[in-house]
Amino acid sequence: MLSTGLPQGTVPKLERPGPLRERVYDALLELITSRALRPGQHLVETELAGHLGVSRQPVREALQRLSTEGWVDLRPAQGAFVHEPTEEEADQLLVVRALLETEAARLAAGNASGRGIQRLKDLCAVGEDAVREDDVDAVVAANAAFHAEVMSQAGNAVLAELAAQVDQRVRWYYTPVARSRGMQSWEEHRELIDAVASQDEAAATRIMRAHTEHTRASYHERADRAEADA
Amino acid sequence: MLSTGLPQGTVPKLERPGPLRERVYDALLELITSRALRPGQHLVETELAGHLGVSRQPVREALQRLSTEGWVDLRPAQGAFVHEPTEEEADQLLVVRALLETEAARLAAGNASGRGIQRLKDLCAVGEDAVREDDVDAVVAANAAFHAEVMSQAGNAVLAELAAQVDQRVRWYYTPVARSRGMQSWEEHRELIDAVASQDEAAATRIMRAHTEHTRASYHERADRAEADA
DNA sequence: ACTCAGTAGACTGTAGACGATAGCCAAAAG
DNA sequence: CTTTTGGCTATCGTCTACAGTCTACTGAGT
After folding, report:
1. Quick one: which residue's CA is nearest to C15's C1'?
2. Distance separating the N- and C-terminal Cα atoms of chain B
3. CB < 8 Å to A97, chain B
4. Which residues are CB-neighbours of B185 under 8 A, at least 6 positions away?
5. Contact, B196 vs B204, CB < 8 A?
6. Which of A125, A151, A164, B138 gives B130 a disulfide partner, CB atoms 3.0 to 4.6 angstroms apart?
7. Domain ranges of chain A
8. Hey, are the CB atoms on A99 and B99 less than 8 Å from each other?
9. Which has the closest alpha carbon to B203: B194, B213, B215?
10. Chain A residues touching B166 at Cβ < 8 A
11. Domain B20-82 has CATH 1.10.10.10
């Protein structure tokens, strides 16, 4: 056992660098999702390496991973290009996410625990507060936290991992909609909590399916509007 | 237009090596799934490189990718270890695969086309022939092909990609069961074809869910039996 | 038996070099 | 004038070598 005599938390836990490839990965993902790197753009290894102050190797490993997760396309002997999203792919991602989230809700209802219900209620309250204060960023964050909690209570790590991947990509396509939509969906969250609390798997399934379907509809509304404008 | 005057196919089209990391990836995946590399085993980069006759770099990139797909665990500053499957994870994978396959069946029913139905019937016939001839390998292959065809007809690339990943991992845990199970499930395949042909999404969903549930049950039977033996 | 410094093995990252490949463009051939 | 050829450039794919660092083990000393 450690017995340094120091109170916990006083030592700043000198920053562990962690594998460099991880940080490069994070940095690139941030650049892509923030659209600083635009879809279709050619990512030159040496440029990225120079820009980030590292050598080519960590960059290559990060690109490798980004490629398996669908963020960049790796063309042999040409290099990495930021993936270009399409309407079709966006819709497919929404379908899959809806499927995964719905299953998570069902499983969560099967595993309902008092503590878990309370956590969901707390997160819901946080979200509703944020709505009242018109703090869009906080609403979006609370919404993500709520869904993550449901996913966690489903108790299926494989499901959670896939959902996390899909979710992040959806969010990339979808950022503008999420902001307008987040403001109006908290009533459905309450209904879901009731269903989970009463261990009603059918109701949880139905509510989550409707919830995700609304999301998908609002995505399409927006896409159609954008198309009409053009 | 090409006009070499050469009849097609006479030129052997000298093999292009393709990126080395791909071949290393394929080789390692084969070694893992064939259990030549055992779960928990430490994969030393230099050893693999030497054994495969390549340098460390392609090995590292292959390991990177295997790690994102769950085949190996990458512990920082220690290296790569073949992922150790657990009963819990196997069950979670089966749940997720069932979910994805069921959705695929539903979508396929919505997209039913004459040509597609015919392809499914053909594959089904191939499988039944293999059963009659007691060719277990052919049965397993036909079963995989049938499910892949359903997935393809669902017309959702994202879904298909996730399913392919999950499916391969399931198969790793599951190989012995698949062999005994494959022999008895072709009647359900016929039922599924009927449901798809009549565009009955509800029936397709129900049948595929039952089908995957049977699979899961036989997995657990076997796991329980193995536990009882031990 | 326990502690702890030292050491070996392995990973992580850097640097430089070389051949291979795709895309482009100008010059030569028909 | 059109097509083909050849060469040029940027970049990738790979290899080699080396330095830094982490982990786990070992063994002496208490």
Report:
1. A55
2. 67
3. none
4. B143, B211, B214, B215
5. yes
6. B138
7. 20-82, 87-229
8. yes
9. B194
10. 158, 162
11. yes
Q: Which CATH class is domain A87-229?
A: mainly alpha
Residue B27 and residue B19: Cα distance in Å, rounded?
13
- Gap from A190 CA to chain B (nearest CA, Å): 25
Within 8 A by CB and 6+ apart from B175, the residues are none
**Chain A residues 98-157 with CB within 8 Å of chain B:** 99-100, 103, 156-157
Q: Which of B65, B95, B157 comes nearest A156 by C-beta? A: B95
- H helices then E strands: how many in chain B? 9, 3
Give per-residue pLDDT as tens, A30-76. Answer: 889 888 888 999 898 888 888 888 888 888 888 888 988 889 998 88
CB atoms A89 and B157 under 8 Å: yes
Residue count of chain A, please give it: 230
Once rounded to an integer, what is the mean pLDDT over residues B118-138?
A: 91
Residues B69, B72: Cα–Cα separation, whole Å: 8
Mean pLDDT of chain A: 85
Q: 């989970």: which residue's tokens?
A: A196
Question: Residue B99 has what DSSP assignment?
Answer: H
CA of B28 to C1' of C8 (A): 28
Q: Which of B's residues 29-68 have CB atoms within 7 A of nucleic strand D?
A: 54-58, 61
What pLDDT digit, counting tens, does each position of A182-209 carry?
566 788 899 999 999 999 999 999 999 9
